[in-house]
Design a protein that fits this description.
Number of strands: 45
Shape: globular
CATH superfamily of the domain at 231-767: TonB-dependent receptor, beta-barrel domain
Radius of gyration: 27 Å
Strand content: over 45%
Helix content: under 10%
CATH topology of the domain at 231-767: Maltoporin, Chain A
Length: 768
């Protein structure tokens, strides 16, 4: 069967499947019984007056909701208020009379869950094929002490970071620029601090993160790989909450407080602490971030050096309930990374001081408005502006050379959509989106002026619609949609069908079929490895249909899920092809380093996950197998291994929790990424005579991580949290990248970039 026929066949399975099932009567349970079940399957305890709950019955909750989602379901059905006291006690209060209780609408709806606690508590797989992480419930992940969204999703099969950076997440063989990353609907073009080593969004403002690897809803566009959607809490807070925290890398503060009965505001701020004191953890991250760059090279060649690095972020979210049917949300974030490097050298018998700088900053703002016109029809309006700016000045030692470089990307977007519940089984979602994206690039041997700037702009109009069907038994779910993109500047129209299908069978099993066509008009490219001091040398580039065409992807997958008696298993096979990629976006550091050609890659893979939960223990095992090959017809007659190919990836982790104490440990092993060696003759004669491209692999990567945490009460309304993690406990030397360079004596030498060694981190937080 051809690849095209295979893809069509996957779609036909869903179209031909029966769209009906037998009706089932809806069971009811006593509320007290359901609370007892929740207590036995979670760390929470419920306190309530027996008289209040006596004879209260509720419908059976949808299968496999998380604890938070089940509580929200019970609140909706009973009117009772569930209030979390401390870390694990929930008070259940009798409902307030309707006339005294203003209705609060929310933009967050309950998701249909098919697997719970996938890799840890709070991590679920949704019926549409996506994964959802609820950070209010999240368990502990090995090597982490905070809820870093981009580190956490790497625990899922099929999600890797070949170079350990959160700014370079590779999902099913794709590059990071092929991921659509959103925070409350605003696109993020900078996802990492420390030039990619930790998340740039304050982890304490992330309520949930959703990951779509395939079957992406039609509302999302401009990405040929995955969608990573970070969201703050969607409910107006009734009580004042505040936290302050300190780690070996940063200090932060978070406030969530009501302004009145109809609105609440969240403010989060974080800054690096190396200006006050330097920790061993900071030194490890610093060496990792700046190794094999202009900073490390100049440090070795200069007489006296001084480095100054700092990062910070600020984010804001305001919710306002205009009326019983109207909700407004405003968002803002600012992200900054600043590096300056000062060195002294002798120049004509005198000491000369040279200073180089690098700044990477992002700013985003957005507005969201939702109106519920009726119980069955609602509309949403989203506006956002996102700006990314990268600038460097490089005064090269032992020369009179000065280079300034700049890359700026700005996007303004408008989206309006509607949701219409046609009946109990069908739901129609439709909308329109307009986006205008501008890139500005410049390079000069003196300070950049407006004459040096090269500006490009691209306007895109999008229509999208999807029809959702769920059988009355809730065993069959079909999402069928399409997205139509019109590129004004190229007069090109692209259609992107989307499909997700899930069918439950034999009570504990479900099968899912996912498929999608997608496109994107943005990519990150590398012109020269020493651009921007060689630290963050990727710059954003708009499609021009010449050197950088619109990238297109096709993907299909089929999987089976199982959950019963604390056992969970999931297996999924997939095939994905991405066309129109530029060699400059793939990070070649061999004979293709300066090539400017267009090609494609095709990946075939398998993701497997197994999880077993005991009383206080949880153990999981995941494995990914994939084959990922390039096809650049102008350079090679046959396919070659992809730079981001990971043939085998294996993870084992276990966690333990007792009351407010948590501990976890894990092992990560994967095959090394492809590598192109120089021939023996080339090394002997100092010539760049390479062997066939990506014909070898780096040594296997292996890492053992551990984490422990404890929450305790200081006073009645004052809680504290302490955590300790050790990344790479065995201090194994992992080589994550290798390439060749030539020194001033024309000698060729091998450069090896090392991953983080043994790196401890500690956190202490106080919650008010």
């Amino acid at each position: 069967m051809s690849k095209k026929s295979y893809f069509i066949f996957i779609f036909l399975i869903a179209f031909c499947h029966q769209l009906f099932s037998q009706e089932e009567s809806q069971n009811t349970f006593r509320l007290t019984e359901l609370l007892q079940i929740l207590e036995s399957h979670s760390a929470y305890t419920f306190s309530y007056a027996d008289e209040d709950l006596k004879n209260i019955e509720v419908p059976e909750p949808p299968n496999m909701l998380s604890v938070t989602e089940t509580i929200a379901f019970l609140e909706e059905k009973t009117g009772f208020k569930f209030t979390l006291i401390g870390s694990n006690q929930i008070i259940v209060d009798a409902p307030i009379p309707v006339e005294k209780k203003p209705e609060k609408i929310t933009v967050e709806e309950l998701d249909e869950v098919i697997l719970t606690n996938v890799i840890a508590k709070g991590v679920s797989k949704i019926k549409d094929g996506s994964f959802k992480i609820n950070f209010d419930e999240i368990g502990i992940i090995p090597g982490l002490i905070e809820n870093d969204a981009f580190q956490t999703i790497q625990a899922l099969p099929g999600v890797e970071s070949v170079n350990e950076k959160v700014s370079n997440i590779n999902i099913r063989g794709g590059t990071n620029d092929q991921n659509l990353i959103l925070w409350d609907g605003i696109r993020l073009y900078q996802s990492g601090h420390f030039f990619g080593l930790i998340s740039a969004i304050n982890p304490h403002q992330n309520h949930t993160v959703s990951l779509y690897k395939n079957g992406t809803p039609a509302t999302y566009g401009n990405s040929v790989s995955s969608v990573i959607e970070l969201s703050s809490a969607k409910k107006i807070n009734d009580d004042f909450e505040a936290e302050v925290g300190l780690t070996f890398l940063s200090a932060d503060a978070f406030i969530d407080t009501p302004l009145d009965k109809k609105s609440s505001i969240q403010i989060a701020a974080r800054t690096s602490i190396n200006g006050a004191f330097v920790t061993p953890t900071y030194l490890q991250y610093y060496d990792r971030a700046f190794q094999n760059s202009e900073v490390s090279d100049n440090t070795a060649n200069a007489i006296n050096t001084e480095e100054d690095f700092k990062f910070s972020d600020v984010s804001f979210r305001w919710l306002y309930q205009l009326s019983e049917k109207d909700l407004l949300r405003l968002n803002y974030f600012s992200i900054a990374n600043e590096l300056s490097f000062t060195a002294e050298e002798f120049n004509q018998n005198s000491m000369e001081t040279k200073k180089s700088t690098l700044s990477q900053n992002s700013l985003g703002m957005g507005a969201f408005y939702r109106r519920n016109w009726t119980d069955n029809f609602s509309t949403q309006l989203q506006l956002f502006h996102s700006n990314y700016h990268l600038n460097s000045t490089n005064r090269i030692l032992n020369t009179n050379t000065f280079v300034e470089q700049e890359n700026n990307l700005s996007e303004t977007a408008f989206k309006i959509s509607s949701k219409w519940d046609l009946n109990e089984r069908f739901e129609l979602n439709s909308g329109y989106e307009f986006s205008s994206t501008t890139s500005r690039d410049a390079e000069a041997d003196e300070e950049i002026t407006n004459e040096d700037l090269i500006e490009n702009r691209l306007n895109v109009n999008n229509l999208f619609s999807s029809l959702r069907y769920q059988s009355s038994s809730r065993k069959t779910l079909v999402n069928l949609g399409a997205r139509i993109n019109y590129f004004n500047d190229f007069d090109i129209l692209l259609a992107e069908p989307r499909l997700s299908f899930n069918q439950q069978f034999l009570k504990n099993f479900s099968v899912e079929v996912l498929g999608e066509l997608k496109s994107q008009y943005l990519s990150q490219i590398v012109n020269f490895q020493n651009d921007f001091l060689g630290i963050e040398n990727r710059k954003w580039q708009l499609a021009d249909q010449f050197n950088f065409p619109i990238t297109k992807s096709r993907q299909a997958s089929i999987g089976v899920n199982y959950q019963k008696n604390n056992w969970l298993a999931s297996i999924e096979s997939y095939v994905k092809k991405v066309e129109g990629i530029s060699s400059q976006s793939q990070g070649f550091q061999n004979q293709y380093e300066y090539a400017q050609i267009i090609g494609d890659y095709r990946i075939v893979g398998l993701d497997f996950l197994l999880n077993k939960k005991f009383k206080n223990f949880d153990a999981r095992l995941s494995y990914s197998l994939s084959e990922n090959n390039y096809n650049f017809e102008n350079l090679s007659a046959k396919s070659i291994p992809n730079n981001f190919e990971i043939l085998n990836s294996f993870t084992f982790a276990t966690s333990y929790s007792y009351k407010n104490f948590k501990a976890s440990g894990g092992l990560i092993w994967r095959t090394g990424k492809p590598f192109t060696p120089i021939s023996a003759n080339g090394l002997a004669n100092n010539q760049f005579d390479y062997e066939p491209i990506n014909s070898s692999n780096l040594k296997d990567y292996m890492r053992v991580d551990i984490s422990v945490s404890q929450e305790f009460k200081i006073q009645k309304k004052l809680l504290a949290y302490a955590g300790l993690s050790i990344w790479n406990l065995l201090d194994r030397e992992n080589i994550i990248n290798s390439y060749y360079r030539q020194n001033d004596n024309n000698q060729i030498y091998l450069v090896e970039q090392k991953a983080l060694g043994l790196t401890p981190n500690f956190v202490f937080r106080v919650k008010f």
